[in-house]
């Protein structure tokens, strides 16, 4: 059966075209078919990606609702940051946050050790400024800081 023709040439009209024009029109037709097939394949491949994007959107909406509920109940996330400090002339990192005006901190490790860990997940890490490196280290360790914070909150709640 095939697809409908875009040009309706009778055999006589088609053969009256020059060989070069027939060849070009044939190639044009082939390219149109190839493009159409690839667009269909792309559409098919995009379905799982769009599904995952939709799931992420739903999770973000749920997370925002949860954050609002936490704020409404009076819980609040502290602000986390990463500091570098020196001990015996060697640079180290620690995570810092404040709970009820009291400073909480978590030792992360030497700057070399932490930078090599974060470098594995961040392209171009070596070219960043020291402030940008601290931001990437914070991004890397933020889930750990939050878990430590909630663990402490839970322990305080139990007692």
Give a topology summary.
Layout: H1 11-16, H2 19-72, E1 81-87, E2 90-99, E3 102-110, H3 111-119, H4 130-158
Antiparallel strand pairs: 1-2, 2-3
Descriptive overview:
The chain has two domains: 11-72; 81-158, no CATH class. It has helices spanning 11-16, 19-72, 111-119, 130-158, and strands spanning 81-87, 90-99, 102-110. The chain has four helices and three strands; from the N terminus they run ααβββαα. The protein is elongated. It has a three-stranded antiparallel sheet with strand order 1-2-3. The relative contact order is 0.07. The model has no long low-confidence stretch (mean pLDDT 84). With 159 residues, the chain is α+β, with helices and mostly antiparallel strands. The N and C termini lie far apart (78 Å).
List low-confidence stretches.
none
The whole-number mean of residue pLDDT values reads 84
Q: Strands of the biggest beta sheet: in what spatial order? A: 1-2-3
How much helix is in the residues? Answer: 55-70%
Terminal Cα span:
78 Å
Q: Shape from CA axes?
A: elongated
Number of domains: 2
| Radius of gyration based on Cα positions | 30 Å
> Which secondary-structure class do the elements indicate?
alpha+beta
Q: Please report the total strand number as a whole number.
A: 3
Strand content: 15-25%
Largest sheet: 3 strands, antiparallel
H/E element string?
HHEEEHH
**In DSSP terms, counting alpha (H) and pi (I) runs of 4 or more, how many helices?**
4
């Amino acid at each position: 059966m095939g697809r409908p023709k875009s040009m309706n040439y009778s055999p006589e009209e088609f053969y009256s075209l020059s060989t070069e024009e027939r060849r070009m029109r044939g190639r044009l037709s082939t390219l149109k078919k190839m493009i159409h097939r690839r667009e269909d394949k792309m559409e098919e491949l995009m379905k799982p990606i769009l599904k995952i994007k939709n799931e992420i959107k739903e999770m973000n909406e749920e997370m925002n609702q949860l954050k609002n509920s936490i704020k409404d109940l009076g819980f609040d996330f502290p602000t986390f940051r990463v500091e570098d400090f020196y001990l015996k002339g060697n640079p180290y990192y620690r995570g810092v946050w404040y709970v009820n005006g009291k400073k909480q901190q978590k030792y992360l490790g030497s700057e070399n050790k932490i930078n090599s860990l974060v470098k594995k997940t961040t392209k171009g890490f070596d070219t960043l400024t020291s402030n940008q490196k601290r931001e990437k280290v914070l991004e890397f360790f933020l889930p750990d800081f939050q878990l430590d914070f909630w663990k402490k909150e839970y322990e305080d709640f139990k007692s």
